[in-house]
């Protein structure tokens, strides 16, 4: 069964007629041609498909598009305007990628988790739940643990995020 869905993707509002079983990931890649959003596991385990969905990071392979009528989606492509987003710049400066397949998801997750930390949200490794969490390497690793990198660029990804958080 098809249903009409309207979403804003990287600032452009689009209306699609979609099978109700279509994921946000497949709608972005297959229908809208936003191929920066990557399909890794398609099971919510690798984070390659992460975007910012209504301001929060989300794995799009687990979300049905019809559940997001009216949503605003920002992909790694949409984070840059005239200049790269500071997180994108930091990934370049710190060699935070090798093949780059996981990078769009890593960048979106990093932007989302920096906002979460700024808002005072604790993580599993936050010791003092009453203080603003300091983003040390352990916090960054824990908060990014949903994003896997098959090239193992983790050390430089942590460096990049540490710089972007300062
Ligand atoms: S493709 Fe969505 S989490 Fe792996
Ligand atoms: S840079 Fe290759 S998968 Fe992460």
TrEMBL record:
Q: Which UniProt keywords apply?
A: 2Fe-2S, Iron, Iron-sulfur, Metal-binding, Oxidoreductase
Q: Which SUPFAM superfamilies match?
A: 2Fe-2S ferredoxin-like, CO dehydrogenase ISP C-domain like
Annotated Gene3D superfamilies: 3.10.20.30, [2Fe-2S]-binding domain
Output one GO MF annotation: 2 iron, 2 sulfur cluster binding
All residue ranges annotated as the 2Fe-2S ferredoxin-type domain in the record: 3-79
Q: In which pathway does it act?
A: Alkaloid degradation; nicotine degradation
What organism does the record attribute this protein to? Allosaccharopolyspora coralli
Tell me the first and last residues of the signal peptide: none
Could you tell me what this protein is called? Answer: 2Fe-2S iron-sulfur cluster binding domain-containing protein
């Amino acid at each position: 069964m098809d249903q009409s869905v309207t979403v804003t993707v990287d600032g452009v509002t689009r209306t699609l007629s979609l099978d109700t079983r279509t994921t946000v990931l497949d709608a972005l890649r297959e229908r809208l041609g936003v191929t920066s959003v990557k399909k890794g596991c398609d099971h919510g385990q690798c984070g390659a498909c992460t975007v910012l969905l209504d301001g929060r990071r989300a794995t799009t392979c687990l979300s049905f598009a019809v559940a997001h009528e009216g949503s605003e989606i920002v992909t790694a492509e949409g984070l840059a305007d005239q200049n790269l987003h500071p997180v994108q710049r930091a990934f370049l400066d710190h060699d935070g990628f090798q093949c780059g397949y996981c990078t769009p998801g890593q960048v979106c997750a990093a932007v989302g988790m920096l906002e979460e930390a700024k808002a005072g949200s604790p993580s599993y490794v936050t010791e003092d739940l009453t203080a603003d969490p300091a983003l040390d390497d352990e916090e960054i690793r824990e908060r990014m643990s949903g994003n896997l990198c098959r090239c193992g660029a983790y050390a430089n990804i942590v460096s990049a995020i540490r710089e972007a958080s300062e």
